[in-house]
């Protein structure tokens, strides 16, 4: 159930369907999770500054049931930062990223929790 949320001051026009599908595919592959469970949520046109300027910036949050941790997060960060720079032009010194490893009992889906559905 990976969930990637990006808040950015970039205009909506910069966040194309190709960017969204690229994010989804990347997250699915790097977490080894079915893309059918991956959700991308990009919030463009946010009133944001970073370092006192309004140049392009973002805050990214990656939430997942498992597949996160000290060493894995370094690899995930490298891939996400590279994607954001290449496809949205946001340099890695203009973003913060947070990782959230969720317990399956705290994530709802299909009227219950992932723990109830999948036992993990």
UniProtKB/TrEMBL annotation:
What are the EC numbers?
A: 5.3.2.1, 5.3.3.12
**Cellular location(s):** Secreted
Q: What is the name of this protein? A: L-dopachrome isomerase
The UniProt entry's sequence similarity note says: Belongs to the MIF family.
Concerning PANTHER family, the annotation shows: D-DOPACHROME DECARBOXYLASE, MACROPHAGE MIGRATION INHIBITORY FACTOR
Q: Name one GO molecular function term.
A: phenylpyruvate tautomerase activity
Which Pfam family would be a valid example here? Answer: MIF
TM spans, by residue?
Answer: none
Which residue stretches, if any, does this entry annotate as coiled coil? none
Name one cellular component (GO) term: extracellular space
Quick check: keyword Secreted in the entry? yes
Which keywords accompany this UniProt record?
A: Cytokine, Isomerase, Secreted
Q: What class of enzyme is it?
A: isomerase
The record, for InterPro entries, names: Macrophage_inhib_fac, Macrophage_inhib_fac_CS, Tautomerase/MIF_sf
Say yes or no: keyword Secreted present: yes
Q: Which domain of life is it from?
A: Eukaryota
Q: Which reaction does it catalyse?
A: L-dopachrome = 5,6-dihydroxyindole-2-carboxylate; 3-phenylpyruvate = enol-phenylpyruvate
Enumerate the PROSITE patterns for this protein: MIF
